[in-house]
Amino acid sequence: MFNKFVTLILSYFVSMLKSTLFLFILSLSLSSAFSQALKPISFVKNGQEYVFGIADLKDVSDLCVLKEQGMTINSINGDVITFQIPANRINHFTSSTYFHNMVISNIKNSSGSQNFTALKQSKVDKVNQGTANQLSSNYSGKGVIIGIVDIGFQTDHPTFFSSDGKQYRVSRFWDQTDQTGTAPTGFNYGKECADSLSIISQIDNDGSHGTHVAGIASGSGYTSTNLIHKGVAHEAELVFVKILHTNDSLGKSALGDAIVANPTIIDAYNYIFNYAKAQGKPAVINLSWGSHTGPHDGTSLFDRAVEQMVAEPGHVVIGANGNNGRDEMHFRHDFSQSFDTIRTIPYERSRGWRSTESVYVDIWGSANKPFQMRAHFYDSAKNKLSSTPLYNTATAQNTSSFLHSGTDTLRYTIEVNANYTHNQKPNILFYSKHPNPKKYFVVLEFVATDGRLDAWNSGDAYRWGSGGFSHQMGNAKFGSTYKKGDVTHTMGENGGTGKGTISVGAYINRDAWVNFDGKLFDKSNEFKAGDIAGFSSEGPTVDGRLKPDISSPGQGIISSINRHAYNPNLPQNRTNLMDSSNFDGTANYWLMQSGTSMAAPQVCGIVALMLEANPHLTSSSIRNILQETAVQDSLTGNVPNMKWGHGKVDALAALKEAEKSLAISNLSEASTIIFPNPASNEIHIQSNIVYTEYIIHDLKGAEVSKGSIQENQIDLLNLTSGLYMLRLIGPEKSLVKQIVISFGNL
Predict the structure, then answer these.
(1) Residue 606 is inside which H or E element, if any?
(2) Domains and CATH numbers, the chain
């Protein structure tokens, strides 16, 4: 991390006298020079391989001749042109007499133009150059702590140094999984590393996720070409916590996340915020981690703990909303008659190539409305082999047992909570495991008189997986009493549902790229840059709140990865390899990855910039600013909606509002009061801000009412009962509020 790797440039220089062609490969390092042969960047079109280049012409009139010889001219700026030429004609053009100089683009400077895409999409580049964009400062995260709670940290990656390599920016690393050292004060597990040497020496082989996430939020890009891979708040102070998410009996799994990881994540939050308070600095924490164990209504112990932590100014938590946007992993049924019965088939998505199948289903009823459930063991011929008893949520119990079919056995556990204290809802947690998914599957049957039932299938209970609900299984098709799942309410418990967590969805950053090996990947026929990522989870929460709060680039994001967990020699690992550098005698890498895990740290970095502008901002005021300044375009449609939240994050607009909040004391949520809420005939507005127009959207984003605000009052008589988003619009400021309209029939 201490060496400065500048670039490798492959240049062809052609003399005016058609003399010798010289190939120069330049490599600069602070400590030593080295060279590496690189081929020109290329792409294939209609079976022909092409390379890119730039040149200055001796005579512009030669353009016609060059085109006739197979050169495609991309742009002309005076005597300077950019072009494409067939790869098999490089020697022809480089030895010609038409140019003063010609440069055939290589891997480094070709991919470089793509790598700022995410920062430009979110206008972070304009915030970093703030004084040139009507801000009072160039913001980079100075004086702010960014906490990354994750796994897979390469602590000695050069991106965690300052941009000149002179300062190491990670101040603390709590490895909760390492029981060989001294635990942090106030905790009795894990190892705290509190100096540069011990932090850098701590090896984490548990994947690359934390390294990638941290690089997005706050990588300096040190040793990458022209710092091209820097993150958002690249001068922030960093604190890492590696999550303890397994124990002696539970590995990496849905069960492990619920039982082991949730408490340790809360500990990590407290550790980071306590350190920040001791340093007198604001802090924003990123959690790109998710599970689906919980009520999804903000009342879980995890979500309640976060709410309390972020009540203090300068304390903010950012969460990834989830990657289940395509997965029918949520199941809902509204019971409407006496002993209404509904059935569904929970399944693990990778069941087709596994020798066993496990499912992990968390089921929640309505407040004070019990329901009953049983599980059935079926074979692929639709034969019911055996069934569990009918479990009633009126009685709390915990049962582990077996269902048999000949010599084959289904093992299951059912945990019944008759009444969860914080929402009065009954809950059943069901997980099972059986052999031979090609032959067997599980059916869940629910019975109730009324109320609503919501369930989430996380897939495998005993290892990380992905699940869904279906109304059929292969050739086994069932009737109308069976129901499949849906893709709504799929945001995760940890990062998506909480009232105190700012949840982030993902949109597509790029639909084509050139990797480190010079290969062009064009996916523009599959997806479109700027559109929502198909995997990005949707809201709302079960209690009707809009989620995600905001969206940012999350598909096709380049950032640092952990060399201890990455093998660049495997062909399957090179498709998304975007850069490599030699630092302190070791190779380090930047990879392109996708997920709301990549979207959340970008917003985390933007919040760090906002806290640099105003360290006293509260989590709720930051959420309001991000929502109010979000971008709506043709791809987002009418926002807010349950795919995009309030739209695309706009760092520049958010920073302008953060700066305003230093001078204007009453820009908080309390400065505008809407009452009554719930409302029936009309809504009144009390505010020190002038609003002149309003727009009301339903939860699908459709506009249902709009007009002028007269005497601070809005007429609601043309609407039906339900939950809506109200946008107030003024000459200087807009505001979005959630409203409930009730005419007595909700």
Answers:
(1) helix 596-613
(2) 9-38+42-104 (no CATH), 117-324+492-630+642-659 (3.40.50.200), 330-477 (2.60.120), 668-741 (2.60.40.3080)
